[in-house]
Amino acid sequence: MKYGYIRVSTKEQNIDRQLSAILKEVGDMKQIYIDKASGKDFERKKYKKLIRTLKEGDELYIKSIDRLGRSYDDIIKEWHLITKVKNVDIIVLDFPLLNTKHQINNLTGKFLSDIVLQILSYVAQIERENTHQRQMEGIKEARKRGIKFGRSKKEVPKQFDDVVTMWVNQKISLREGAKLLDVSHTTFSKWIQEKGYMREKKKNLDKIKESSKMKLAT
Fold first, then answer.
1. Given the residues 9, 64, 71, 189, the one annotated as active site
2. For FRET with 49, which of 59, 112, 182, 204 sits at 20 to 30 Å CA-CA?
3. What is the pLDDT of residues 78-117, one digit of tens each?
4. Is 9 a catalytic residue?
5. 92 and 200 in one domain?
6. Which helix (DSSP H) or strand (DSSP E) does residue 46 occupy?
């Protein structure tokens, strides 16, 4: 059985290039597993399902070896699992020399494939590390020039003081106040903390408690 695997990060959402090449070989869209994951999220649920599905004699088509993992160790580990443990052939479309299918001398062919794989995986990891280093250096230089990264800070609306006064006086809840300002309750709570209204409300509550005690005493 022929299978295909595609992985794209959130930065490269377009899967067309990988899909068209793999679909041409596999022939059935149902046999192609696709993961979309960010750098932080690398669970690869479809890949794990694919590994459970693969059986001895199957063929796995990938566009390039870095689809198997993010690091040298990851790629080597997955390659070993698929080709040695599962006895499944891997066909790397971008680098036919790595293909384990239809090798004239199977033992020698796989040995050469393993050597080439280790070299390419090492080079790929070094390139990723160098790219990351260049990005960090670029960000550092940009910050020196005053360039800011991330989301811009949300401006506090003019009606904030009126709304927060109602909240301090217990006329509305935190969520109701946030709704009036059309922001999340987390943002509203953050503004309250930053502007010291949390302390003001505590003082107000203390006054109410003290007043209640005095009424009970009389």
1. 9
2. 112
3. 988 998 899 999 999 988 877 887 655 566 566 666 777 7
4. yes
5. no
6. helix 45-53
